[in-house]
Amino acid sequence: MRRLPRIIASAIIGAGLAAGIACVPVGAAPVMGSTINVVVDSLAPLIPARSGNLRIAGRVVNSSPQPIERVTVQLRLSTAPLRDRGELSVVANLPLIPRQTTSSDDVLKGSEVDVNSLLRPGEESPFVINIPLRALPLGSAGTYVISVEALGTNYQGVEGSMGIQRTFLPWFPKGTDLNPIGLTWLWPLVDWPARDADGTLLNDSTPLALAPGGRLGDLVSAASKNPSVVTWIADPELLQSASDIANGYEVLRDGELVVGDRSRDARAWIVNLKSALRDSPLHTLPYADIDASAARRAGLEQEVVRSITRSPGIAEQVVERPVEGGIAWASSGRFDKRTANLLAEAGVTTIVLAADAMPPVTSTSDPRVPTLTPNGIADYSTAVGVIDALILDSGLTNAIGARQRTRGEVVLARQRFLAETALIATEPGAEANRVLAVGPGEVRWHPTAALLDSLLRATSQAPWLRTATLEELRSASRIPRRKATYGTGVVAAELSVQYMSRVKAAEGRLDRLVAILDDPSTIGPSYSAALLRAQSSAWRAEPSLGIELLGMVNTGLLERTSLVRVLSAGTVIFPGDAGRVPVTIANDGEQAVTVGVALIGQPGARLQSTPLSKIRVDPGKKVSVDLEARVIGGEPLRVSVQILTPAGARYGTPATISLVSTAYSRAAGWVVAVAFIALAAFVIIGITRRIRRVHSSRTPSAPIGGAS
């Protein structure tokens, strides 16, 4: 409910400004409609001073279907500086509609410049306005709205205003009483970690980014000119990748594995970074900027811990100097409670959050009372204690993240940033020595070199700004803030449950592989790192590339797993109900393994067998063993011959054999034999009795009474 008064207030402010813009004095020329696009390509000086000249250069473009005659441009300047950041936001979001003289700004005399006598549809013409700053009616110090207005005559012969572009002009003449605000520039060096376990790059993205004019090349180049202005925060995976590229690499191009050709650029990038870090500390993120929230939900807490604890050591190997770990940058601007607890338990002492993740607890709900911009630091409570939360200022984040496709957009972004900071510095009633955290909303940011150069120079030169270190920001006072909820929309932005389940399955496959190896260090670390890269938050925005990487890691694991296998097959016939089952285990790998083997009946109730363990198989060799087994029942039994890890976990794909017991067939034979003998006995007895009866009937009888 607190948002409603603010929304209403903003609407009221906007309506008031819009009314001023639309206020046309009696007798003024009519507004013609927005038929000319005004583009400001440059505005100088960066920091205006009374003794200099204001020079604005740009272009006008006829966006209408009709020609426009007698095109001119002129400057308009607000009669008073902006009062607060809310008013600045309203002005910045006003539509670029043409207007006449208003009560809020005036035309600058002597600023009118003829551009073109006839501007055809789609045609553009350049302009340059050059006017002494002392000639501008700039009153008190503050941030003014300055506009370039285009005028012309349409095809009907009506003359009027046809287009406008507004921007901001901070004005702080020498001697202005100021309490400069400190800016702690958080400078992330992070990339998409598309490397498989063998170090093969899935594409040329990172080598191109490291090259001069590339995204990462520009970030290091701009900051190296002002190295003490920025707080360096790097993903050690990027540093590791740059080092590997510098030493020679392979990359997939159109499905073909080729030798990369940008090692020289990577070496130069590392040299430039080391030079910039000579007098500046380097802070590291968790390895591969792991999606900690998604990993925790998948039950991969140990992976999060590993990405944090191994981070500083990897970075130190590349930059050859001590680094500081313990910083985590929230991918979506915030962490959920359980993930924050996990990070803190793993050693994270500082998290970087968006402004809306921890809004201030205000003491008033009156929208007429401007909210002072607080320091960019807050206490963040976790299960193991309070850690530091660096709160990015939303206005400054939006300014450096604004579109920068053209020179005109770069100028507008720069002036918006300068205006935001100038208004913060002049907020009435603010405490002295405030420090703000400045950084992008996305760690894989891509600002233009021109914007970076100008803003870093302004941080050092503008009278209302000063450079502040991370330590100074941490020492700044803190106001009460509340944690925003971690909603379903934020959860949906994480790496998917299905994807993370595949990662977890691959982790189990790797654990079983390294468990049987005599020297797990030859394989384990490279695949472990690759699986961390597969969990990077980078794949939130590039899911298909993450799936491709995980697929390559899984393929490699399956190939290595299949090198140790069972060769047994066919049918084994026992002379009785028990016997020995011969099993052959082959090791086609490059190092010895220690495994076990077990027989698993299908169904298991029909088989009794004790597994064997501690079977050593040297590389390129085969080992045969016999397993004792007892089969219950006379039917053939299907049996899986399963390799086991030393801990008893099932390894690889089992072989299948059949077991047949002859004990039951012999028992059946004896039953038949006994039955046959019994039957024969009955037959013999019957025949004997019959013979006796026949013989008895043929014997003569003795005479009655004796002899005569």
Number of helices: 19
At the first level of CATH, the class of the largest domain is Alpha Beta
Whole-number total of structural domains: 5
Strand content: 25-35%
Q: Largest sheet, if any?
A: 5 strands, antiparallel
Distance between the termini: 150 Å
Helix content: 25-40%
Task: Spell out the key features of this protein.
28 strands; 7-stranded beta/alpha barrel; single chain; 5 domains; 5-stranded antiparallel beta sheet; elongated; disordered C terminus; disordered N terminus; alpha/beta; 5-stranded parallel beta sheet; Immunoglobulin-like; 34% helix
Written account of the structure:
The protein has 708 residues and is an alpha/beta fold. The protein folds into 5 domains: 3-171, Immunoglobulins (Immunoglobulin-like), CATH 2.60.40.10; 181-195 and 207-246 and 263-486, 7-stranded beta/alpha barrel (Alpha-Beta Barrel), CATH 3.20.110.10; 493-561; 566-661, Sandwich (Immunoglobulin-like); 667-693. The chain is 34% helix and 27% strand. It is built from 19 helices and 28 strands. Strands 3, 4, 5, 7 and 8 form a 5-stranded antiparallel sheet that branches. Strands 9, 10, 13, 18 and 19 form a 5-stranded parallel sheet that branches. Strand 14 (327-329), helix 10 (337-345) and strand 15 (350-353) form a beta-alpha-beta unit. Helix 4 (215-225) runs parallel beside helix 13 and helix 17 runs antiparallel to helix 18 (543-561). The longest helix has 36 residues, at 663-698. It is elongated and about 160 Å long. It starts with a helix and ends in a 10-residue tail after the last helix. Mean pLDDT is 89; it is low at 1-32, 665-674 and 701-708.
